[in-house]
Amino acid sequence: MSAIDLPSLALILAALARGGAHVHVRDTDGLDALAHALTALGAMVERAEAWRIQGRGMGGWREPGRVLDLGPRPGAVPLLAGALAAHDVTAVLAAESVSLAGLRPALERVGARLTLRRADLLPGAITGTPWPLPALHEGLGAAEGMGLLLAGLNSPGRTGVTMLPEMEPALDLLRRFGAGVHVEDGNAWVTGYPDLTGPDDPIHA
Protein backbone atom coordinates (compact mmCIF):
# COMPACT_ATOMS: atom_id res chain seq x y z
CA MET A 1 0.00 0.00 0.00
CA SER A 2 2.67 2.48 -1.06
CA ALA A 3 1.19 4.50 -3.96
CA ILE A 4 -0.62 7.66 -2.90
CA ASP A 5 -4.33 7.80 -3.76
CA LEU A 6 -4.47 11.44 -4.92
CA PRO A 7 -8.27 11.65 -5.37
CA SER A 8 -8.76 10.38 -1.82
CA LEU A 9 -6.13 12.80 -0.54
CA ALA A 10 -7.91 15.71 -2.23
CA LEU A 11 -11.24 14.82 -0.62
CA ILE A 12 -9.69 14.34 2.82
CA LEU A 13 -7.86 17.67 2.65
CA ALA A 14 -11.08 19.39 1.59
CA ALA A 15 -12.86 17.82 4.58
CA LEU A 16 -10.09 19.08 6.90
CA ALA A 17 -10.09 22.57 5.40
CA ARG A 18 -12.17 25.60 6.18
CA GLY A 19 -14.69 26.57 3.50
CA GLY A 20 -15.57 24.75 0.32
CA ALA A 21 -13.64 23.01 -2.44
CA HIS A 22 -14.47 21.51 -5.83
CA VAL A 23 -12.60 18.35 -6.78
CA HIS A 24 -12.62 16.79 -10.25
CA VAL A 25 -11.38 13.19 -10.34
CA ARG A 26 -10.96 10.62 -13.09
CA ASP A 27 -10.72 7.53 -10.88
CA THR A 28 -14.03 7.53 -9.01
CA ASP A 29 -14.18 3.77 -8.30
CA GLY A 30 -15.05 3.30 -4.65
CA LEU A 31 -14.79 7.02 -3.87
CA ASP A 32 -18.40 7.07 -2.65
CA ALA A 33 -17.25 5.00 0.34
CA LEU A 34 -14.74 7.66 1.34
CA ALA A 35 -17.33 10.39 0.78
CA HIS A 36 -19.72 8.63 3.18
CA ALA A 37 -16.91 8.33 5.74
CA LEU A 38 -16.11 12.03 5.52
CA THR A 39 -19.81 12.85 5.88
CA ALA A 40 -19.89 10.76 9.05
CA LEU A 41 -16.95 12.85 10.34
CA GLY A 42 -18.95 16.03 9.81
CA ALA A 43 -18.00 17.27 6.34
CA MET A 44 -20.65 18.08 3.74
CA VAL A 45 -19.99 16.15 0.53
CA GLU A 46 -22.00 16.34 -2.68
CA ARG A 47 -21.33 14.68 -5.99
CA ALA A 48 -22.38 16.43 -9.22
CA GLU A 49 -20.10 17.21 -12.15
CA ALA A 50 -17.42 17.56 -9.50
CA TRP A 51 -17.17 16.61 -5.83
CA ARG A 52 -18.21 19.56 -3.67
CA ILE A 53 -16.87 19.39 -0.12
CA GLN A 54 -17.51 21.77 2.76
CA GLY A 55 -14.87 21.08 5.37
CA ARG A 56 -15.00 21.32 9.17
CA GLY A 57 -11.77 23.26 9.63
CA MET A 58 -8.58 21.91 11.19
CA GLY A 59 -9.37 19.75 14.22
CA GLY A 60 -13.11 19.95 13.65
CA TRP A 61 -13.95 16.35 12.82
CA ARG A 62 -16.61 14.80 15.04
CA GLU A 63 -16.85 11.22 16.24
CA PRO A 64 -18.62 9.13 13.61
CA GLY A 65 -21.71 7.20 14.58
CA ARG A 66 -21.04 4.30 12.24
CA VAL A 67 -18.26 2.18 10.78
CA LEU A 68 -16.14 3.96 8.18
CA ASP A 69 -16.08 1.26 5.52
CA LEU A 70 -13.44 2.04 2.88
CA GLY A 71 -13.56 -1.43 1.35
CA PRO A 72 -13.90 -0.26 -2.27
CA ARG A 73 -11.12 2.35 -1.79
CA PRO A 74 -8.22 0.75 0.13
CA GLY A 75 -5.85 3.52 -0.96
CA ALA A 76 -7.74 5.90 1.30
CA VAL A 77 -6.96 3.83 4.42
CA PRO A 78 -3.46 5.11 5.35
CA LEU A 79 -4.50 8.70 4.60
CA LEU A 80 -7.67 8.64 6.69
CA ALA A 81 -5.97 6.65 9.47
CA GLY A 82 -3.23 9.25 9.69
CA ALA A 83 -5.68 12.15 9.84
CA LEU A 84 -7.78 10.38 12.49
CA ALA A 85 -4.72 9.72 14.67
CA ALA A 86 -4.48 13.44 15.48
CA HIS A 87 -8.20 13.98 16.20
CA ASP A 88 -9.82 13.35 19.58
CA VAL A 89 -12.32 10.81 18.20
CA THR A 90 -12.71 7.06 18.05
CA ALA A 91 -13.53 5.59 14.66
CA VAL A 92 -13.88 2.04 13.38
CA LEU A 93 -12.24 1.59 9.97
CA ALA A 94 -13.08 -1.29 7.68
CA ALA A 95 -11.42 -2.37 4.44
CA GLU A 96 -11.14 -5.88 3.05
CA SER A 97 -7.73 -7.53 3.57
CA VAL A 98 -5.98 -4.28 4.52
CA SER A 99 -3.39 -4.40 7.31
CA LEU A 100 -2.07 -1.44 9.27
CA ALA A 101 1.00 -3.36 10.40
CA GLY A 102 3.41 -1.03 8.62
CA LEU A 103 1.66 2.10 9.84
CA ARG A 104 0.71 1.13 13.40
CA PRO A 105 4.03 1.97 15.14
CA ALA A 106 4.05 5.48 13.62
CA LEU A 107 0.41 6.13 14.53
CA GLU A 108 1.07 5.01 18.10
CA ARG A 109 4.11 7.27 18.19
CA VAL A 110 1.78 10.16 17.37
CA GLY A 111 -0.29 9.11 20.38
CA ALA A 112 -3.17 7.18 18.81
CA ARG A 113 -4.46 3.88 20.21
CA LEU A 114 -5.34 1.06 17.80
CA THR A 115 -7.44 -2.05 18.39
CA LEU A 116 -6.99 -4.35 15.41
CA ARG A 117 -7.41 -7.97 14.42
CA ARG A 118 -4.59 -10.49 14.19
CA ALA A 119 -1.82 -9.30 11.83
CA ASP A 120 -3.17 -5.77 12.36
CA LEU A 121 -5.94 -6.37 9.83
CA LEU A 122 -9.01 -4.20 9.51
CA PRO A 123 -11.71 -3.77 10.64
CA GLY A 124 -10.38 -2.11 13.75
CA ALA A 125 -10.70 0.96 15.93
CA ILE A 126 -8.48 4.03 15.95
CA THR A 127 -8.71 6.36 18.93
CA GLY A 128 -6.98 9.60 18.08
CA THR A 129 -5.17 11.73 20.62
CA PRO A 130 -6.02 15.29 21.70
CA TRP A 131 -2.28 15.83 22.26
CA PRO A 132 -0.54 14.62 19.07
CA LEU A 133 3.23 14.34 19.22
CA PRO A 134 5.27 15.72 16.30
CA ALA A 135 8.20 13.59 15.14
CA LEU A 136 10.31 12.52 12.17
CA HIS A 137 8.97 9.20 10.86
CA GLU A 138 11.50 7.35 8.72
CA GLY A 139 11.27 4.32 6.46
CA LEU A 140 7.59 4.57 5.52
CA GLY A 141 6.13 4.08 2.05
CA ALA A 142 4.72 7.05 0.18
CA ALA A 143 1.08 6.53 1.19
CA GLU A 144 1.93 5.78 4.80
CA GLY A 145 4.23 8.80 4.96
CA MET A 146 1.51 11.03 3.58
CA GLY A 147 -0.85 9.70 6.27
CA LEU A 148 1.64 10.83 8.93
CA LEU A 149 1.90 14.28 7.32
CA LEU A 150 -1.90 14.54 7.57
CA ALA A 151 -1.56 13.74 11.28
CA GLY A 152 1.10 16.45 11.46
CA LEU A 153 -1.32 19.06 10.17
CA ASN A 154 -3.25 18.80 13.46
CA SER A 155 -0.15 18.52 15.66
CA PRO A 156 2.07 21.17 17.25
CA GLY A 157 5.48 21.95 15.80
CA ARG A 158 6.77 20.11 12.74
CA THR A 159 6.16 16.55 11.58
CA GLY A 160 8.41 14.94 9.00
CA VAL A 161 8.71 11.79 6.92
CA THR A 162 11.34 10.37 4.61
CA MET A 163 10.91 12.10 1.26
CA LEU A 164 10.19 9.90 -1.75
CA PRO A 165 10.00 11.21 -5.35
CA GLU A 166 6.45 9.92 -5.82
CA MET A 167 5.28 12.17 -2.99
CA GLU A 168 5.78 15.38 -5.00
CA PRO A 169 2.22 15.62 -6.45
CA ALA A 170 0.74 15.00 -3.01
CA LEU A 171 2.93 17.66 -1.41
CA ASP A 172 1.85 20.11 -4.11
CA LEU A 173 -1.76 19.31 -3.19
CA LEU A 174 -1.06 20.11 0.46
CA ARG A 175 0.44 23.44 -0.59
CA ARG A 176 -2.67 24.30 -2.61
CA PHE A 177 -4.73 24.06 0.57
CA GLY A 178 -2.31 26.34 2.41
CA ALA A 179 -0.19 23.82 4.31
CA GLY A 180 3.37 24.80 5.13
CA VAL A 181 5.45 22.12 3.39
CA HIS A 182 9.26 22.05 3.33
CA VAL A 183 11.68 19.50 1.93
CA GLU A 184 15.14 19.46 3.45
CA ASP A 185 17.90 16.92 4.01
CA GLY A 186 15.89 14.15 2.36
CA ASN A 187 12.78 14.65 4.52
CA ALA A 188 9.40 16.26 3.89
CA TRP A 189 8.03 18.39 6.73
CA VAL A 190 4.69 20.02 7.52
CA THR A 191 4.07 22.71 10.11
CA GLY A 192 1.14 22.04 12.40
CA TYR A 193 -2.13 23.94 12.71
CA PRO A 194 -2.19 25.69 9.32
CA ASP A 195 -5.30 27.59 8.28
CA LEU A 196 -6.28 25.14 5.55
CA THR A 197 -8.74 26.62 3.08
CA GLY A 198 -10.33 25.26 -0.06
CA PRO A 199 -8.61 26.63 -3.19
CA ASP A 200 -10.56 29.09 -5.34
CA ASP A 201 -9.81 27.06 -8.48
CA PRO A 202 -11.13 23.49 -8.91
CA ILE A 203 -8.75 20.69 -8.03
CA HIS A 204 -8.02 18.00 -10.60
CA ALA A 205 -6.76 14.79 -9.06
Describe the structure.
This protein has 205 residues and is an alpha/beta fold. The protein has a single domain (6-195), classed as UDP-n-acetylglucosamine1-carboxyvinyl-transferase, Chain. Helices cover 28% and strands 22% of the residues. It has six helices and twelve strands. It has a four-stranded mixed β-sheet, with helices on one face. Helix 1 (6-16) runs parallel beside helix 2 and helix 3 packs parallel to helix 5. It is globular, with a radius of gyration of 15 Å. The protein starts with 5 loop residues before the first helix and ends with a strand.
What's this model, at a glance?
With 205 residues, the protein is an alpha/beta fold. 28% of the residues lie in helices and 22% in strands.
Estimate the mean pLDDT confidence: 95
CATH fold-level name: UDP-n-acetylglucosamine1-carboxyvinyl-transferase, Chain
Q: What's the CATH H-level homologous superfamily?
A: Enolpyruvate transferase domain
User: What is the CATH architecture assignment?
Assistant: Alpha-beta prism
User: How many E strands?
Assistant: 12
- Assembly status: single chain
**CATH class wording:** Alpha Beta
Helix content: 25-40%
Give, in spatial order, the strands making up the sheet with the most strands: 2-3-1-12
Largest sheet: 4 strands, mixed
- How much strand content do the residues show? 15-25%
Straight-line N-to-C gap: 19 Å
List the helices and strands and how they pair.
Elements: H1 6-16, E1 20-24, H2 31-40, E2 44-47, E3 51-54, E4 68-69, H3 77-85, E5 90-94, H4 104-110, E6 113-115, E7 124-127, E8 136-137, H5 142-153, E9 158-162, H6 168-176, E10 181-184, E11 187-191, E12 203-204
Parallel strand pairs: 1-12, 4-5, 8-9
Antiparallel strand pairs: 1-3, 2-3, 5-7, 6-7, 9-11, 10-11
